[in-house]
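Support case: user asked for a sample of complex input and structure output to validate their parser. Sending the pair below.
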Amino acid sequence: MSATVITVTSGKGGVGKTTTTAAFGAALALEGHRVCVVDFDMGLRNLDLVMGVEKRVVYDFLHVAHGTANLSQALVRDKRVPNLFLLATSQTADKEELTHEAIDHVMNLLRGEFDYILCDSPAGIEHGAMMALHHADHAIVVCNPEMTSVRDADRIMGYIAARSRRAQAGLSPVREHLVVTRYSEERVRKGEMLSLETIQDILVMPLLAVVPESDSVLRSSNAGRPASLDGKTDAGRAYRAAARSFLAETRHGIAQSYRAPQMAGAGFLSALTETAQRGLLRRLFRHA
Ligand SMILES: Nc1ncnc2c1ncn2[C@@H]1O[C@H](COP(=O)(O)OP(=O)(O)OP(=O)(O)O)[C@@H](O)[C@H]1O
Ligand SMILES: [Mg+2]
């Protein structure tokens, strides 16, 4: 087995990376794949909370890296989806302990055990975020429909291209996928949020999912339940559809070819007026 590594990244913080890692990872597992979600957000560990397994974490990434625990001791298996696992990050250790060699060692072990490894990246472009990007075969770039988020997502794309193991080894580039979260068609109509079209004009990469702003996400998160386990909610459906699109697209090797995702009852391509869009674009790139 040699896993495909998918890093969930954003640039800007608080946009929905951890939510997406848990939900997309669980959705891939529901499709029958063996999946491990890995928390790279050292010190701020919260993927275990969103997955609802925090009480069962005994060992973490650094224990495996240092050989004080083996991988099977550190992996926490989900009780609802048995082919879904979590490798937690350390809450206390010095971030610099997470060296390239330590990460290579753990990632090699994981690659041998899983079909998909989902890496939840910390915000920003610091050490942990670069480490999470380094191993990526695919990058899911998460952004909200607002200017700062889109601009930071645009910046992170440059890092993905330059810093990845794939780039350094001369392999085909990391495949990028856009996930827009917290989208509200009503707020787009009022001009309070960027439209999907505007976002896609700026961030030129295939759109994997549009996840609506939804109270169900907060409820899932508080209950320690990845949003995709609830297939009846709009957000849950969006993440499940995203996993199926991803699998179909990567299975057939069709590059850059996602169709616009379906969002129940929404003509979400409706947008700001042309003038409003141009104004936003100017403001967006004025300081870039
Ligand atoms: N589709 C959504 N609808 C409503 N709330 C959402 C949605 N997606 C995420 N959230 C909420 O946004 C907040 C931030 O989400 P999350 O922790 O996943 O972001 P993050 O990018 O991982 O943050 P950080 O950069 O701090 O790691 C959480 O309270 C989460 O419940
Ligand atoms: Mg997070």
